[in-house]
Fold:
Amino acid sequence: MTTLTDVPAPVPVPAASPSPDHRGSWIPTGPMIRTRIMELRKRRGLMITMALVMIGIPTVFLGIRLLLHGVDPKTYGPAGGYDIYTAFVSGVLYVFGFILAATLGVTAGSSDLTDGMFRHLVVTGRSRLALYLARIPAGLAIIIPVVAAGFTIVCAVCVFAAPTRVEFNGLRVPANLSRAGLENWAAGHPSEVICDGPNVQIGPNDAGIGTTIQNFPCNNGPNPGGGPTITKQGPGPQAQPQPVSHAQAVQAARFIAGENYGDYTRHFLYPSYSLMIKSGLWLELEVLIGFVVGLGLGSLLGQRTVAVILLIVLEIVLTPILSRAKIAHLINLQRAVVGLATAHLAPGGLPVLGGGGGGPGGGGGNPGLVPESTTVAVCVIVAWLVGWSVIGAWRMMTRDT
Amino acid sequence: MTTTTVPALADERATESQWAVETHGLTKRFGNNVAVNSVELLVPRGCAFGYLGPNGAGKTTLIRVLLGLTHADAGTMSLLGYSVPRHRAAALARVGAIVDEPRFHGHLTGRQNLQILAAAREPAARQRIGPSLERVGILHRADDRVSKYSMGMRQRLGVAACLLGDPQLLILDEPMNGLDPAGMHEMRDMILSLVAEGRTVVLSSHLLDEVERTCDAVAIVDRGQIIRQGPISELLAGAALALQVECTEPERARALLDATNIGALIQVGEAGLGISLPVGTARDAIAEINRILVEGGISVYRLQQIQASLESWFLSVTSRLGAEE
Structure:
């Protein structure tokens, strides 16, 4: 090898220009996060798809229901209400929220590699870990508001366009009445309340009410079989059939309404505020998981298509199967599925994983799911979040480009 | 929190070092294939340095190792006096580089791509986006999507990305690719202007003519090894001496010269004799050839020394090595 024997005379070099920065720090800077948001936001196809699915579907579907109900309320039921809410939250927003968040995560994790920008970024000297971590707040800053917007639309319609009458033990009763309001309504509809109303328990001090109910002429006769079931608890012989005055009927109807007010309030017309808050947070948790897992998988594989397909299969095929099939030898493996853990954290009243009913106990109370404690569910979710972040960051830091 | 605050000692070394790039025994293997083989490379500061080699010689791999895009298997290296990978962040803060074909986010504009890269650099880099785009001549297309850029425009955008960090060292891998003749001319001028500002430009290329026009010094790499390096003038001085002789009776002139022990390779052509003398032949040999011809009764109308080109020298070096093997 020839060595340099006569190199050109060194020329004065420009002063070291870079101002002090923390280029080796693993903490991403604000501008890095902002430009990363811009990069994702400018992906029009992805952004339009997200908006269409998370905002467009609820808007169009609920809008049509609102319109139809407005035109012909007797044929078409109210647009909102509790049932619509649960269907949207645990169906559309839950499943598609995960898939879209995962797609966004995969895109964020792989786009620099596939577009050839990763080399440019590494050559800046910026920590690769910081480059990776900048994608997390950037992606979440996009997907969380989109999901929140769709969820807000669903909540608004379900609350403000909820049914005004509740189906309550065979009666159609106005919604949201106070105890006095319900009693007053019952006083105005004694025949419906006594003949078609709910069960009522008659105590020893209310024997007269029981007699009234029993003697009330339902279907052109006394009421031996129809109407409220009267459980007599007082002593004494059964009263003979007597004509029932209007005042007695009103008194009996008020009594029945008062006795059933607690049951009446438990009938959901629209989701409670606490349920909406809990399910909103639960949806965002699902979205967070989808994004972080997608980011890690996208960074690991370095490409988008396979990663997105894998996550869709996980969400809509494997998770429902593994959550419900009771395989004794694989029970702990099933518990490690993040979708199952998320389902166990579902707020009360939401059916999860493709239906099956949630009930007041939420996903954890869903007898169809593989049993899992809340602690285990939380640990599984944390493990998935941390694990995929570590895998993605490791691949990012060790990848040859 | 870790920071890149460079130790004072490293800063001193960085200032004192006369080498922009310095490698010793640098080796990179891919399985059994040694892509970079014990490379000893010294690139002086403040010059345009050509890194030449045929396709597959290991040029891009060496650049990737220098920039931390892949790790070295053996050896040491430093950029601007900063040992890398130990002080990689501090070194790369003063380096701009294009590796392979410059690619960007196609759905973003040129300006937006630079914004992403500037955000990863120091805060002042954001102020340099406009001037960098202007300097490479694509300011008028800065707000068009990169997917609509030609290859040449992407090359220019790549150079603009290099300039964001106000670099002391630019490493440009095949920067002329995709440029039309006018673009190549502009790129050459730009490189020369960067060098005139005191920056160091390492130009990896297989376009020997462009390197010869642009660079002060070169290193020739073949099969992962540097086989020659030094200032171009010095390297060419060691090249074979070529003469063009216009005379009467060229065939007899050839016979006269063949009968001597000059060791020249002689070809007869329409323009006269083409004479190639071995490397290291003294200039006195030219006078000796003239004397032999004149004494042999040959009229010599013109005797001209042909300046060896980098291309001919490169080919002679690499082909000789090939023949030796």
In short: The longest strand of chain A covers residues 165-168.
